[in-house]
Amino acid sequence: MNSPITYELLHVCKQTGARRGVIHTPHGDIQTPVFMPVGTQATVKSLTPEELKEINAQIILSNTYHLYLRPGHKLVEEAGGLHNFMKWDRPILTDSGGFQVFSLKDLRTITEEGVEFKSHLDGSRHLFTPEKVMEIENSLGADIIMAFDECCPYPSTYEYTQKSMERTTRWAKRCKEAHKYPEKQGLFGIIQGGFYKDLRKKSLDDLVELDLPGYAIGGIAIGEPREEYLDILRYVAPMMPENKPRYMMGIGSPDYLIEAVMAGIDMGDCVLPTRIARHGTAMTSNGKLVVRNANYERDFTPLDDECDCYTCRNYTRAYIRHLIKANEILGFRLLSIHNLYFLTKLMDRVKIEIERDNLGNFREEFYHKYGYKL
Questions:
Q1: Is 95 one of the annotated active-site residues of the chain?
Q2: Of the four listed, 100, 182, 261, 280, which is most buried by Cβ atoms within 10 Å?
Q3: For 19-46, what is each residue's pLDDT tens digit?
Q4: Does the model's pTM come out above 0.90?
């Protein structure tokens, strides 16, 4: 059976080994490397699909856990699937809900069967099994769907991490068996194993045997020191299949994205750009700018004088600060538009630098300007 998700490698940066490619999906091609905005509730917070297209978002994410609880996957299926429900005709990826269930902590119980949890909305009890997650994701109808996994907390013992990793592999096999539409939706496996390299290697090897359309690294970028993130990233990413998409889950800061791309990753996602927007922070070419601070009260310049997004073309720091201080929705919208545009343009520039075999030099220049340490 031909996979609905295929990867085409276009160029490898001679300086860094970073990849430039295309992911082919039923709803269009994705030029990689790519940052994917997160639309948890079938919407990227406060933005319309038309605005996302103006930003040139190629693919967005939605959340299995949240859409299962509200409005319900069967309702979305009745609407014709997520694409029709939210009027988005480009690719969509749905996560498995594993990270959200992991985040519930005291509200969930993990067994071999699955995870029993209490809804954060009303306290009602639910059971996520690999089969149930596949039922939900099949109903939602995204182009790329994620296998159900267990994300270990940081830190975790070797023994716990090993049991968790092995269970994740068994769950991935059950997901593959339960997946109803392999000709329409590409099922990605999630590599676990915490911060133990031998467990990461075992997880990767076992998942590759399933011959899935793509693979993701999960269980890092969850609050550990940056050095540990980089260590596992740089160890795992180069071993992932070369002929399939490589996805690093949950990364949205410019440095984490650039480091992931340099390690060979094609896809990244995070709620970070919209979350910090809601707290009055902008990403700019000179680093983070907390526009709600008092020193911007009479600053009538754009958020970033090097940016040509809708926000920077039309509004000043002073005005956006006023909106944020007044708790006006427009302020959050304008900052979200800017932050998502910033990361999209950053990935566009990264693509160019890969093709020029110059990504390492660009990284050094960007870090210096943004205020990061190499």
A1: yes
A2: 261
A3: 999 999 999 999 999 999 999 999 999 9
A4: yes
